[in-house]
Amino acid sequence: MTREDVIIHLDHVGRSFSKPDGGTLVVLDDINFDVRAGEVVALVGRSGCGKSTLLRIIAGLIAPTTGAAHYHGGELSGPNPSAAMVFQNFALMPWLTVQKNVELGLAARRVAPAERRQRALEAIDLIGLDGFESAYPKELSGGMRQRVGFARALVLQPDLLLMDEPFSALDVLTGENLRNELMTLWTGHDFPTRAICLVTHNIEEAIMLADRVVVLGTHPGRLLAELPIELERPRDRRSPTFEALVDQLYELLTGTGPATLLVESATATPTSHPLPYASVGGLAGLVEIVRGKGGRADIPDIAGDLGIEANDLLPLVDGAALLDFVRVQGADLELTAIGKDFTAGDIQAGKRIFAQQVGRAPLVRTIRNALRDCPDGSMDAGFFRDILGQGFSPQDAQMQLDTAIAWGRYAELFDFNTHTQKITADPDAALVTPTS
């Protein structure tokens, strides 16, 4: 590989944002990797790991706080001159026709009208939208609107095509069709770009499309692994190699969240081990499904049965593993003895088991211990919100607190008054030490 093969080089890139209280929220930390000519790179990770922020740094739309992003050896100091972006929400101008939407980037570059028209028509034809040049976005289906987004990016003939979850707003069949067509174009001779970098939360999509998958951890986003995908195209989802790669990626993702928390760890804090955004009902439902499948289940299989993305199950998987209701190995779940007891008894028995296990969650434990030390057993929720604000955005801090309150109320450890914003300990509750 020569230096000319490296289109983007990220050198110890970090990104933080200022918080209203004057503190700093670190989103990305010490990211190092390259995007090379002739490859498709997928960025995967849990929600909140900074994937989209990293993509915008590559695009030059956001500057890194530390480190640098280099394009063809030169440090980016503004918008990447030869990158084009495809967005999740299409981002079309509703008052412009398909052709005029595709011409937008060329007009911004002051390309002459005749050349703009010719290049736009060629891009529209390439992406399969010929015949719709004069249509407006409201006349198009979601899949067709996203095709316009692709044409608008490709008409610029960029070195690097950046895609931020470009298929997630589409129905399953439309998304699959568009993915296949994109890969057909990529493997052909007329694709007008040298590399692709996409953000996706769909693990199978990453393996279907990418030559290399970059896995990010969370809080803050750090590079966990780079997984090469050495499969010929077109790829078969049912092949043993494909399934092994799916399991490997799940193992990386499920091994980085709250599920890895050790009960006896004195260093676990609400910010170092955040709660998954999972309701008690969702946790119970997942455990019931695993029990109904004989005590063992595969995450993608469960997601397929429910008609949702497998990645959307991960917060529930994290919560169930954190409470020791299931054990996780890659994409496989196994019900524990505690999990069996949790689902086998009546509601009150299940609540008692939940109360016993919920002490494994650092934030719930912090709230319960703080209430125990207060003379009246009551504290303002703002106190915990401020603590969480040291490691989370205001929105994520509130979601953490909401989850902890929901878990604690179900366990009858404490109550919450929405009017006074007071959390109050249940005088009859005791924080039971969870079993190991």
Salient structural properties:
15 helices; alpha/beta; 16 strands; four-stranded antiparallel sheet; Rossmann fold; disordered C terminus; six-stranded mixed sheet; FokI Restriction Endonuclease, Chain A, domain 1; 436 residues
Outline the fold blueprint.
Layout (H helix, E strand, L loop, with lengths): L5 E13 L5 E13 L3 E6 L5 H9 L6 E6 L2 E2 L7 E4 L11 H11 L4 H14 L15 H13 L5 E5 L7 H15 L8 E5 L3 H7 L2 E5 L6 E6 L11 H15 L25 H13 L3 E3 H8 L7 H9 L3 E4 L2 E4 L1 H8 L2 H11 L4 H12 L4 E3 H8 L5 H17 L3 E4 L4 E4 L11
Parallel strand pairs: 3-8, 3-9, 6-7, 7-8
Antiparallel strand pairs: 1-2, 1-4, 4-5, 9-10, 11-13, 12-13, 14-16, 15-16
Q: How would you sum up this structure, described in words?
A:
- This protein has 436 residues and is of the alpha/beta class.
- The protein has two domains: 250 residues, P-loop containing nucleotide triphosphate hydrolases (Rossmann fold, 3-Layer(aba) Sandwich); 146 residues, Foki Restriction Endonuclease, Chain A, domain 1 (FokI Restriction Endonuclease, Chain A, domain 1, Alpha-Beta Complex).
- The strands form four sheets. It has a six-stranded mixed sheet, sandwiched between helices.
- Helix 5 links the parallel strand 7 and strand 8.
- The N and C termini lie far apart (50 Å).
- The C terminus is likely disordered.
Gist?
With 436 residues, the chain is an alpha/beta fold.
How much is the average pLDDT?
A: 87
Total discrete domains: 2
Helix content: 25-40%
The structure class reads alpha/beta
Low-confidence stretches: 256-265, 431-436
Helical stretch tally: 15
Please identify the top-level CATH class of the largest domain. Answer: Alpha Beta
Number of strands: 16
Placed side by side, the strands forming the largest sheet appear as: 6-7-8-3-9-10
Shape: globular
Q: Termini distance? A: 50 Å
Going by CATH, what is the homologous superfamily of the largest domain?
P-loop containing nucleotide triphosphate hydrolases
Radius of gyration: 24 Å
What is the CATH T-level topology of the largest domain? Rossmann fold
**Most strands sheet:** 6 strands, mixed
| Proportion of strand residues | 15-25%
Q: From the 3D coordinates, which CATH architecture of the largest domain would you assign?
A: 3-Layer(aba) Sandwich
